[in-house]
Structure formats: C-alpha cells, structure tokens
Amino acid sequence: MQECQRLTSLIGDIYDAALDSSLWVGVLAKITDYVGGHAGGLLSKDSLSKFGNAYYHCGVDPHYLRLYAETYSKLDPMASLPFFDVEQIASIPDLVPYDEFREGRFFREWVRPQGWVDAANAVLEKSVTSCAYLSIIRSEAQGMVDDKMRRRMGLVIPHVRRAVLIGKVIDLRQAAATTFTDVLDGLNASIFFVDAGGLIAHANAQAHDILHAGDVLRAKSGRLVAADTEVDQALREAFAAAGKGDAALGIKGIAVPLTGKDGTCHVAHVLPLTSGERRHAGVARTAAAALFVRKAALDARSPPEVIARTYGLTPTELRVLLGIVDVGGVPEVASALGVAETTIKTHLGRLFEKTGVGRQADLVKLVAGFSNPLVA
Predict the structure, then answer these.
(1) Which of 38, 53, 320, 348 is least surrounded by Cβ atoms within 10 Å, i.e. has the fewest?
(2) Residue bearing the bigger pLDDT, 374 or 359
(3) Can you tell me the mean pLDDT for 189-217?
(4) Is the pLDDT score of 146 beyond 90?
(5) Three-state SS string across the chain, please?
(6) In the β-sheet with 255-259, what is the strand arrangement from edge to edge?
(7) Domain 303-369 carries which CATH code?
C-alpha cells in the first residue's frame, strides 16, 4: 500500500511537470530514487550526428555534463536505442556487448570516473532525425540494472512519455496565445482541449479537419461527440473523471479506439489536466482534458534503423558503419570506439559483404541515400 501511494504521488508530480518545466529536475530526482538509480536525465540523441543533449538532469556533476556535450555524447552507446520500441527498457548490455562498452573511451573516461556501471533507458519519442529518452543511471554500489528496477521503470515510463508530449505541445506559462495556436496547428496529431462535460475549449487545424469529416468525431452544440455510442460514453466518463482530477485515468491508461465507417482505425489518448498543481496553473482553467487523436499506423523509422533492417546489420556493425560516415577511416573509428583496428576491419569486411559495396566512400553514399527528404 505504501508503494502504491508513493507511485500515485510520483505520477501526479510527473504530470505537474508537464505544465511547469521548472519542476522536472525535482521530479527526475524522485523518479531516480523510486526506481533505484543514482542519477537521471531527459535527453535527446541525433540519429546520424550522434550529438546528445541533456535537457533536464539530476545527480550529475556539471563538469561531466560539459564534457558530455563537448566530446562524449558522440561516443555513448545510445545509437542503438532507436532499435527498441517506445517505452521498452534497455540497459547498456542490451545496447552493446558490455565487455566492448568497458573498453571504450566513453566508459573509461566518462562513466567509470563517476562511479557508474549501467543505466536503464527508454525511448519516449523518436523520429527520422532524433530520439528522446529517459535514462536512469546505476552506481557501482547499486550494481547492474535488475528486474526490480525494470519493473519500477515500467510503471513510470508511460506517464513520463505523456508528460513530455503535453509539455512539448503546451508551454502555458511562457507561450503567447498566437504562438501556442501555431505550435498546435503544426503537429501531426489532432488535439482537442475539452472541459469536464466535453465542451470544446480549443481544437487545432487537424482536429477541425476531423470534425468537418464527421466520421469518427463531430461537434454537437459545441461539445465533442463520438460517432460510436460506446466510444462516446467512454469519452464522456473520461472527461468527467478528468474534471475531478481523477488520478486513476493516468494509472489505468487513457487510450480509446475509434473506427471510421470505412474501417479506418484511429486511437484517441485522453490526458487529464486538472490534478495536483495543474489546478493552480492560472490559465486554461476551463480545460479538463486534452484529447490526442491519430490514425493507427506504424511510425516512420529512423534512417539508421532502416539501413540496419535493409542489410541485416547487427548493432555493432551499424555503429561501425555510422562511425565511418561521421568520424572517418578505420584508425579514427577504432580510437573513437575504443577497440582495435583489426576489429573495425573485420566489421568493415562484413559491411562490404552485406551491402554489396567495396569502398568506404560507397558506404558513405549508401547512408546518404537513406536520408529522408521529408520534414516531420
């Protein structure tokens, strides 16, 4: 019972940070303590350049943060993280052979001096150009990521992901109304803000398109109504619960399926906006919930993942391939990865065999050919 209360309180704090980004550092400290870690951060990783950025963090020495930004972000093993599903937990040994990790510069010069040994990581969002993730680091005294840590991470990750999403869309304390509207209209998802009775307070351009089509959702006297009776009832109950600050919505999950007349499937996610500190946000007081609606479809994969799947590359072979593109020749890649040149040459031979090319320059052209010309 005590753990349930602790988790419930933590979930409320996570959603509060969605509307007040200054709370993230304290919330990360609470998450780190709850799951059994030593330090934590919300970070992003560029898929091709390998540049990493820590947006919020706790338990990390500022000196090592600067070193990470300047040098070591390109050497960490997170290049393999986009291979994992969103919210799937991956420790360091899941990303790269651990013996190889310990031999590399990243471990020897950045991880070990801080007394760390492992980290539990989970993708929160990924696109063709970047990957956002939560990372909770373990110290030598705590040991490697274990089942207990994975279980507790699994309980908080969905809520962190939703909070990051809503925080990305809404910066209610800083954005002007016009800018806020432009941001919403620029998103792929249809977004509705409704009160406890389903009255629409705001809808972005994509949401208006859905209402105009009148297939899965429509507006009736200013209220959001679902075409399917059972779905409509589920949404009404969710909005009413959100109006009361019902934390159960966050704990039980808030996904609702929507099916069009032609069989097209959509998924609606309801996020309550009225729990805890969100009641005192001072703006948008009438909005009890945000409803995100997207067509059910596979997410676009990042270029590295597409390349690996196309040619059947292992995570290590992919790291070597991208190292050739970003760093240079065999000696440079070997130094960056902290392995022998003969090891790089072995992987390079396998890359030539799998891709059908015979020169390093051709590998660079191959990677360039997978670049996505579309802007998400």
Answers:
(1) 53
(2) 359
(3) 87
(4) yes
(5) CHHHHHHHHHHHHHHHHHHCHHHHHHHHHHHHHHHCCCEEEEEEEECCCCCEEEEEEECCCHHHHHHHHHCHHHCCHHHHHHHCCCCCEECHHHHCCHHHHHHCHHHHHHHHHHCEEEEEEEEEEECCCEEEEEEEEEECCCCCCCHHHHHHHHHHHHHHHHHHHHHHHCCCCCCCHHHHHHHHHCCCCEEEEECCCCEEEEECHHHHHHHHHCCCEEEECCEEEECCHHHHHHHHHHHHHHHCCCCHHHHHCCEEEEECCCCCEEEEEEEECCCHHHHHCCCCCCCCEEEEEEECCCCCCCHHHHHHHHHCCCHHHHHHHHHHHHCCCHHHHHHHHCCCHHHHHHHHHHHHHHHCCCCHHHHHHHHHHCCCCCCC
(6) 200-203, 190-194, 289-295, 265-272, 255-259
(7) 1.10.10.10
Class of the CATH domain delimited by 2-169: alpha beta
* pLDDT over threshold 60, residue 301: no
Whole-prediction pTM? 0.50
Q: Give pLDDT, residue 52.
A: 73
Q: Which CATH architecture has domain 177-295?
A: 2-Layer Sandwich (3.30)
Query: What tokens appear for 149 in the block?
Result: 């840590």
pLDDT in tens, 279-295: 444 334 467 888 888 77
- Does 303-369 match 177-295 at the fold level? no
